UniProtKB/TrEMBL annotation, chains A, B:
<protein>
    <submittedName>
        <fullName>MaoC family dehydratase</fullName>
    </submittedName>
</protein>
<feature type="domain" description="MaoC-like">
    <location>
        <begin position="18"/>
        <end position="126"/>
    </location>
</feature>
<dbReference type="Pfam" id="PF01575">
    <property type="entry name" value="MaoC_dehydratas"/>
</dbReference>
<dbReference type="InterPro" id="IPR002539">
    <property type="entry name" value="MaoC-like_dom"/>
</dbReference>
<dbReference type="InterPro" id="IPR052342">
    <property type="entry name" value="MCH/BMMD"/>
</dbReference>
<dbReference type="InterPro" id="IPR029069">
    <property type="entry name" value="HotDog_dom_sf"/>
</dbReference>
Length: 149, 149
């Protein structure tokens, strides 16, 4: 597999991931381990609760979006090393049966002043459901290698 | 179990979670599902890579911190509903064998102007390892109910 380097990226470059099917069993399994609240793990309690049914943990949605990023990686062998995330917003509850699509767009590309082999890429990720509604958005800061000399 | 409401929270209120043991099997299992890169899932490849060994997916660290928040929930029955996260930073690689501690501090408490039964809490979460080094920090925005009349 080939690789993309910092030098290959330009603000405005964008990619769309594959459909992400949100399955009830996965929603419950993730939340039992990491976010065991009734709205995420207990269909009966969730049905009479505020959301009228199970909703996915926001951290599960973020993890599913990361999985799609790896599976449909536009950068080839380049390691995807996250420095951080800004402006992460969970905008609409994600429910079992939903199908999500992530779109990623390069916002900024910066070379490191001190380390010529590295730079920083700022990427905006937006995630929509099958109705076209945005369910999550975030700004990802990633460390990225420059092309080897 | 009792519950805390927006009315009960004051900026400066802080809680420390329980020790979070980072286990290699969990690091690999999470990453195989959500972040299947060699640095997270392949001990041999990771050993000769940049970090000299396996490191946890940043999303796994965030999920472990959420699990601790639920397990050591200072808010009782109040649902912990995330609106978003700002300034999430992965500051130091987390490795199998590390033991993490999360500290949470209320930064701001705001009543909703339009919905008297709801408000927003801003919480700063910092996560340190057994050496006292900060490995992750973030600002959490949460929706919080006010005390029922």
């Amino acid at each position: 597999m080939s690789a993309l380097y910092l030098d290959d990226l330009t603000p405005g470059d964008a990619w769309t991931g594959a459909p992400i099917a949100v399955e009830e069993a996965d929603v419950v399994r993730f939340a039992r381990e990491f976010d065991a609240q009734p709205m995420h793990i207990d269909p009966q309690a969730a049905a009479i609760g505020r959301f009228g049914g199970l909703i996915a943990s926001g951290w599960h949605v973020a993890a599913l979006v990361m999985r799609d990023f790896i599976a449909n990686n536009p950068f080839g062998d380049t390691p995807l090393l996250g420095i951080g995330v800004d402006e992460l917003r969970w905008l609409k509850p994600v429910r079992p049966g939903d199908t999500l699509i992530a779109r990623r767009e390069i916002v900024a590309v910066r070379r490191s002043a001190s380390k010529p082999q590295l730079g920083t890429v700022t990427m905006r990720t937006t995630v929509t459901d099958q109705q076209g509604d945005m369910v999550m958005s975030m700004i990802n800061l990633m460390q990225f290698p420059t092309r080897p000399m």
